[in-house]
UniProtKB/TrEMBL annotation:
CDD domains per UniProt: TPP_E1_PDC_ADC_BCADC
Function: E1 component of the 2-oxoglutarate dehydrogenase (OGDH) complex which catalyzes the decarboxylation of 2-oxoglutarate, the first step in the conversion of 2-oxoglutarate to succinyl-CoA and CO(2).
Residue ranges of every copy of the Transketolase-like pyrimidine-binding domain listed in the record: 476-650
UniProt-listed Pfam families: E1_dh (PF00676), Transket_pyr (PF02779), Transketolase_C (PF02780)
Protein name listed in UniProt: 3-methyl-2-oxobutanoate dehydrogenase (2-methylpropanoyl-transferring)
Listed GO MF terms: branched-chain 2-oxo acid dehydrogenase activity
EC nos: 1.2.4.4
Top-level EC class as recorded in UniProt: oxidoreductase
Cofactors named for this entry: thiamine diphosphate
Alphabetical list of SUPFAM superfamilies matching this protein: Thiamin diphosphate-binding fold (THDP-binding), TK C-terminal domain-like
A biological process from GO: response to nutrient
Key words of the record: Oxidoreductase, Thiamine pyrophosphate
Keyword Oxidoreductase: yes
Amino acid sequence: MIENNELAMNLESRLSFEEFRKEVLNDYRLACDSREISLLARKEVLTGKAKFGIFGDGKEVAQIAMSKYFQPGDFRSGYYRDQTVAFATGIATPEQFFSQLYADPDLKNEPFSGGRQMNSHFATPNLDKDGNWLNLADMKNSAADMAPTAGQMPRALGLAYASKVFREVEALHTYTGLSHNGNEICFATIGDASTSEGHFWETMNAAGVLQVPLAVFVWDDGYGISVPRKYQTTKNSISAALEGFRKTEDSNGFDIYNVKGWDYAGMCEVFEAAIRKIRETHIPALFHVEEITQPQGHSTSGSHERYKSKERLSWEREFDCNVKMRSWIIENAISDEANLQAIEAEAKVKAQEARKSAWEKYIAPIKAHVQSFIAQATPVAAIAGADADMVNVAIRDLQHNREPLRRDILKATATILLKHASLKADPAIQALQQFYDSYLQEQKDTYNADLYASGVNSALNVPVVPAEYDAEGITINGYEVLNRYFDQLFTNNPKVFAFGEDVGKIGDVNQGFAGLQQKHGKDRIADTGIRELTIMGQGIGLALRGLRPIAEIQYLDYLLYGLQPLSDDVASLQYRTKGIMHCPLIVRTRGHRLEGIWHSGSPMGMIINSLRGMHVCVPRNMVQAAGMYNTLLQANEPALMIESLNGYRLKEKLPANLESFTVPLGIPEVLQAGTDVTIVTYGSMTRIIEEAMVTLSEIGISCELIDVQTLLPFDIHHSIVESLKKTNRILFVDEDVPGGGTGYMFQQVIEVQGGYRWLDVAPRTLSAQAHRPAYGSDGDYFSKPNTEDVIRIVTEMMQE
């Protein structure tokens, strides 16, 4: 006789097996779905419906196993082969995948980038248009993907670092919509060949030092496009090469796990325990997922049969993860052949349905636009004197084009209008012109908007609050202004964090944070290693998760180390996600005038041309800097703040409303009115020019000095040209190389603002020399613009 408890145990066991069986088959179904999507998507590229494709085939099972432990609140910082991760976590659907493949610009169809990024570049929103942070703690989140190899690694460190501060800073525990006590993990994925990038090594080292919940999955398929792993990695193994980083009982570091990418059961077992440990302890881990295959090669640009041996290709067919999982299912009697065949057949159907639906949604509005064009172009053919044959050919070509593009419609319309320019007064031509203008503007909005934020998220919409001064207000050093400002800021805003080289204990090299770590804690004002790249990554991750980081680059010269993530990730973020994701990072640094090659940097041309999408603030003094910080902290946009190196010990009057006054971005300030020459500059050069103006005034030359205050944005109301209308002479001055910042300002005023109309003499630029500034006071004098240079050029302009 079977006891009741034994009966119950048998029943529970059967139920447990049924649940297990169901879960396994669902996972296999997803692996098949993703594989069929890869195969079908490749065909769409090769037949011309899509421009390029790169897919995650061969990594399906590993990505499914990983995704089983991805929880709400977690963040993904991955790369462009993570389609199965996106499907498994619900971040993307197969139909959305195809919509992105077709570059559908409608966010309803392609919600990650509105057609602006190629396939498998996923993103989830973090802010709404009212400036409210979404409930990230209950979402499955994905930082916006980008193609530069290993570019996802620095921000992965920051996303994990955010969990550390959410857990350790008590004042943040009330922000339950952003974090559940720091329990979130950042899942970073990377191809094995990309671990050769410095980004990877700097990130892994920093993660081991900081001890943050970062789970790094290396998909190892043995190649970097055509280059075998042995030419990429020391010891032919990234996990072996990193062995010295392994955490021990008496050291920091990270855990290292090795798994096979075709071993479904083995990966599930390892990942479950390892991810639980990361979540609980915040000890990072590297998962070296070996023996991955890539059945269709690197991308649609070529065949892997060109560089893989017959033996390798045979091995890849045998160890294909889907094939191995299928065999494992049958060997363990989880399902039978017939059922698996049904799953596989269903996957083909689902892929076709997703493709068809996505294509129809993509092509339908374009075909409607074609019909609108035909309706407007047809009457033109009937005009007396019109080239009816030409118009009808244009109409017929678009009618017969099965896959028309928006550009085809615009080109056809523009060609007809140009051909019939002499008939522009005819109502039919006017109607066609109106159609063209409206359609062109609509598509510009579709493809060119969202480089910067709008509405309440925009720094340009922050109310202007002038600085106020008490009659008994004190005058102190510039660095003391900042020190008092940061003290008030950190006291009143728990979301603000600052970190960088020497920022903490000594209070930064110019004492802006002096004594503040001791007052506000090491978690909020922190020292870092000398690693500018991942300092930027730390800031990016915190900003994506709703905090307000101030990430410091000690000197502007060293910004180059951190420029790649700022340019490729931060500056392009709002544009490439079509405004769904924001990164309100403030990068604080110092530059301009000082004596020496490596601490006198003013590479403004490089900065403004690589950071479109960020604001670039160049305050002339520290009170102005504080006002700009206030402006930025009320918005949700990224910015670079360049403080003047030689201004920290200059005396400034302390505003009474230090923490609340704002300096508007993109609004130049006239520092001194004049009638003869307009001089446009910023930063430390304002003081050089003010000195020159004393002498110029003595010889009867009246100069109007304008401080642009920010280079991005630049003079949004075109006020500089108003000065030029009065003086008819203009000189642009800065410390960048010739054609750098001065060339940019020149183009903005003379071309964009139409300033050329008001010139009586040739406009001039005065910049530094083309070389780096030489060391010493004489080196500075002969390398950068000086007082005598300003006087000489202005007097020449007056004599012209």
